[in-house]
Every structure is written in C-alpha cells, then in structure tokens.
Specification:
mainly alpha
Length: 40
C-alpha cells in the first residue's frame, strides 16, 4: 500500500486533543512484560 499523503500534509491535518499517550498505552503493563520479551 502506497501512502499518497505527503508528510507535511499529514502534519497539517493533525488535530489537537486532550488525550495523552497514557490513554492509548498501558505503560505499567508494558514495563512489567518487557523482561519476558527481551532478546538478550
């Protein structure tokens, strides 16, 4: 799939939001599971 939207156009179409990254990511879960999936 080829992205036809230029990067500058993408940036210009972003909207402000009051959501923080923690709304989308469960950081505690990620940190607790990191040792199980690390390669070394």
């Amino acid at each position: 799939m080829i992205n036809e939207l230029s990067f500058n156009e993408f940036l210009n179409t972003l909207q402000d939001t009051n959501r923080k990254l923690s709304f989308y990511v469960d950081w505690q879960k990620c940190l607790s599971n990191k040792d199980e999936i690390k390669l070394i």
